């Protein structure tokens, strides 16, 4: 019997023949063992790891014996605290599936199911609950959403002849408003202030809205809500509405209009822990799943190596637009080469990109990097033209790197770090001050406890003075202060 690492083998793209997806190493299966097509195969755990274990049955001794063992992994190992995120360790008991459906039926938050069964180290998480609910919906709506509603109404009418229903499909259902579409393009697809103002005035005239008071008031305060007026400032791509939605989603399910101040503090801590868990999940995905990139796509390969999953997806979207543009050199002054990047479909859509050919520092008129923090298609097109194979460091924001949140102090349980790797001096100092303060608060009310505290501190001081200052960092062991006294 041969046991291999979960990351053994290489990714093989699925081949579709006449609508049938052929099964390969990366083909997923549904509950009935039937291959099904994955929506977006953008990452894989496969990295060609050679670690394996081979055992054979010895018929003479009637025992299984290990004949080959190789533990040379070519990738970071999943730590014990993260092992439940591995596919082989994930499992949803039947009771959890039933409770998930019951919560959905009663309009209760599905995310509460995991907390009922003990938190994150239980073999399933919120995503598994939502995925199960999605599968249930698909089975129930096998004939389509609208068709299922129609069948439901027919059954109700068969049971009760007095039950009446009517279905009407109007034209905001089949057609999108042209004005709405044009306004969106005007707001989000104009990169110069004069272009926005010109296009806005044209739209008002085309639709006879020059005298619309509400639209005129919006235009008067355009600098506070139209992105072109603040694209030079870093907002991680968020506008005012999105920032508000972010705050709402942070407290979603925890805070209501009847929540008092004390409950708010407790709920805020719970909401923060949910955010931390999501970040830990993303860290695991970024570290142990590899982006699927062709060998000759050097910029994408570099981006896959340094960026987190979500940021890489945005970077990949920008790279995919490179083929829709062409580049022209328009001048060189003092080592600064200017390029004009034009759309192949729309000649009017063009952007100037001045670039220092020595340092590769530059800026694009669209200011996507300044606003979002990710290189735009236009600069990337210039990089492709110049055969630049790696993203320059000054175009990589530290917050977008895979190890951006390597260290974190989150609660009384202690310092959360990257499973045994070195902690920075500042975080060690902050954590020690935090724990020392807890012990001091426990010892202050009693003279006996105070004497124990001082005696322990003196003993600790003597031990620390014997430790050389430049010794290698050791793994931090965090003890519960209550257990220490």
From TrEMBL:
<dbReference type="GO" id="GO:0008270">
    <property type="term" value="F:zinc ion binding"/>
</dbReference>
<comment type="function">
    <text>Putative transcription activator involved in regulating light control of development.</text>
</comment>
<feature type="domain" description="SWIM-type">
    <location>
        <begin position="351"/>
        <end position="387"/>
    </location>
</feature>
<keyword id="KW-0862">Zinc</keyword>
<dbReference type="GO" id="GO:0006355">
    <property type="term" value="P:regulation of DNA-templated transcription"/>
</dbReference>
<protein>
    <recommendedName>
        <fullName>Protein FAR1-RELATED SEQUENCE</fullName>
    </recommendedName>
</protein>
<keyword id="KW-0863">Zinc-finger</keyword>
<comment type="similarity">
    <text>Belongs to the FHY3/FAR1 family.</text>
</comment>
<dbReference type="InterPro" id="IPR031052">
    <property type="entry name" value="FHY3/FAR1"/>
</dbReference>
<dbReference type="Pfam" id="PF04434">
    <property type="entry name" value="SWIM"/>
</dbReference>
<dbReference type="InterPro" id="IPR004330">
    <property type="entry name" value="FAR1_DNA_bnd_dom"/>
</dbReference>
<dbReference type="InterPro" id="IPR006564">
    <property type="entry name" value="Znf_PMZ"/>
</dbReference>
<dbReference type="InterPro" id="IPR007527">
    <property type="entry name" value="Znf_SWIM"/>
</dbReference>
<dbReference type="Pfam" id="PF03101">
    <property type="entry name" value="FAR1"/>
</dbReference>
<keyword id="KW-0539">Nucleus</keyword>
<keyword id="KW-0479">Metal-binding</keyword>
<dbReference type="GO" id="GO:0005634">
    <property type="term" value="C:nucleus"/>
</dbReference>
């Amino acid at each position: 019997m041969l046991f291999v690492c979960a990351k053994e083998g290489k990714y093989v793209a699925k081949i579709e023949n006449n609508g049938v997806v052929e099964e390969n190493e990366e083909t997923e299966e549904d509950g009935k063992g039937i291959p099904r097509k994955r929506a977006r195969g953008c990452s894989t755990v496969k990295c060609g790891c050679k670690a394996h274990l081979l055992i054979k049955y010895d018929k003479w001794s009637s025992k299984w014996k290990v004949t080959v063992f190789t533990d040379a992994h070519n990738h970071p190992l999943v730590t014990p605290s993260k092992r439940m995120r591995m596919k082989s360790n994930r499992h949803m008991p039947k009771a959890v599936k039933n409770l998930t459906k019951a919560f959905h039926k009663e309009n209760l938050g599905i995310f509460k199911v995991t907390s009922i069964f003990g938190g994150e180290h239980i073999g399933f998480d919120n995503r598994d609950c939502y995925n199960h609910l999605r599968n249930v919906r698909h089975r129930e709506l096998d004939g389509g959403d609208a068709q299922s509603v129609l069948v439901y109404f027919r059954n109700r009418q068969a049971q009760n002849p007095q039950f009446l229903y009517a279905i009407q499909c109007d034209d905001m259902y089949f057609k999108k408003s042209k004005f709405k579409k044009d306004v969106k393009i005007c707001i989000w697809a104009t990169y110069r202030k004069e272009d926005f103002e010109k296009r806005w005035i044209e739209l008002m005239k085309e639709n006879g809205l020059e005298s619309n008071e509400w639209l005129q008031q919006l235009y008067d305060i355009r600098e506070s809500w139209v992105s072109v007026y603040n694209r030079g400032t870093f907002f991680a791509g968020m506008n005012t509405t999105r920032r508000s939605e972010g705050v709402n989603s942070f407290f979603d399910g925890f805070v209501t209009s009847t929540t008092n101040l004390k409950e708010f503090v407790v709920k805020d801590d719970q909401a923060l822990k949910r955010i931390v868990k999501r970040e830990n999940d993303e860290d695991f995905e970024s570290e142990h799943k590899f982006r699927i990139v062709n060998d000759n796509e050097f910029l994408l390969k570099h981006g896959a190596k340094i960026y987190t999953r979500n940021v890489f997806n945005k970077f990949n979207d920008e790279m995919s637009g490179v083929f829709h543009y062409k580049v022209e050199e328009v001048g060189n002054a003092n080592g600064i080469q200017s390029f004009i990047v034009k759309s192949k479909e729309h000649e009017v859509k063009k952007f100037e990109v001045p670039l220092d050919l020595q340092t590769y520092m530059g800026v694009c008129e669209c200011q996507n990097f300044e606003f979002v923090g990710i290189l735009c298609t236009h600069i990337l097109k210039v990089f492709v033209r110049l055969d630049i194979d790696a993203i320059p460091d000054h175009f990589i924001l530290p917050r977008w790197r895979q190890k951006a949140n390597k260290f974190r102090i989150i609660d009384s349980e202690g310092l959360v770090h990257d499973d045994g790797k070195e902690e920075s001096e500042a975080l060690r100092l902050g954590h020690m001050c935090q724990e020392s303060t807890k012990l001091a608060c426990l010892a202050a009310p009693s003279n006996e406890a105070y004497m124990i505290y001082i005696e322990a501190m003196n003993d600790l001081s003597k031990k620390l003075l014997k430790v050389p200052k430049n010794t290698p960092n050791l793994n931090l062991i965090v003890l519960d202060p209550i257990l220490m006294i």
